[in-house]
Amino acid sequence: MAEQQDERLPFRIRGSLQTLLALQLIEPDHPRLLPELEAKLAHASQFYRDAPLLLDLAAVRARPPIDLGRLVGDLRRLGLHPVGVQNPSPPWREAAEQAGLAVFGPGTQPPERRPRAPQARSAMVVDRPVRGGEQIVAREGDLVVLGPVGHGAEIAASGHVHVYAPLRGRAFAGIDGDSGAMIFCDRLEAELVSIAGVYLVAEEFEPAVSGARVHIRRRGEALVITPCGA
Questions:
Q1: Per-residue model confidence as pLDDT tens digits over 1-52
Q2: What would you report as the CA-atom Rg of the chain, rounded to the nearest whole angstrom?
């Protein structure tokens, strides 16, 4: 009976994994915040245009909240679309709700660094092309893709990402915070690559690595792209 009733409903609610950029607020009152953010966005204007955005409040949760409604307006004028906050304290949560922002979960954080024995990784293997609009996630271990990844496609793994073909979409490694995860591909034509929350967009790739066979690793708060064999 419940299934018959659901079939008559004019909607369907499903779980969905979406890619959201996170803007970590460190000095939200700093006069250079908006000018420097605007300069950063200019390097990849097509990618950032109309991008949904989370405001990460972890670094400022102990401080009194700022006027988030005003900040939201400023960010929208830059072409971003704030949709929510994460890691708020109760006062920041109240400020977010007043600004019409949703409150998201804390997200993944890099794990505490401590010596531990190496663990074997499982792997999901995809032996076909990944087409635009498709999303594949290996939630436990590595992802191995044997076909090309098309524009607009997203692939993600808690471990390494291997693409033995051209990578033209978006690739996310270490989605649970493993900063030691890496991305490997036969030809780098990606729109975005990310490891444990640190990302680069295509406009930021060095000419020497665009279209090359590369491996990508995280070093501190930056990604390093190295041609294979270099």
A1: 444 555 678 877 765 656 677 888 999 999 999 999 988 777 666 667 788 8
A2: 20
Domains belonging to the chain, first-starting first, are: 21-104 (3.30.70.260), 123-227 (2.160.20.70)
Confidence at 113, pLDDT banded by 50, 70, 90: very low
Q: Specify the 3-state DSSP secondary structure of 97.
A: helix
Q: Helix, strand, or coil here: 4? A: helix
Based on the number of CB atoms within 10 Å of its own CB, is 7 exposed (0-12), middle (13-18) or buried (19 or more)? exposed
Q: Which of 82, 86, 78 is nearest to 100 (CA)?
A: 82
Residue 191's identity, in one-letter code, is E
Report CA dihedral (119, 197, 183, 127) to the nearest 10 degrees. Answer: 90
As given in the structure block, the two tokens for residue 34 are 């908006």
Nearest to 155 by CA among 177, 178, 118, 129: 129
Q: H-helix or E-strand containing 35?
A: helix 33-42
Residue position matching structure tokens 């051209």: 166
Residue bearing tokens 């665009």: 210
Half-sphere exposure of 225 (CA within 13 A, CB side): 25
pTM of the full structure: 0.60
- What ranges make up the beta strands (E) of the chain? 21-24, 51-56, 80-86, 102-104, 123-126, 135-138, 142-145, 154-157, 161-167, 170-173, 183-188, 192-195, 198-201, 214-219, 222-227
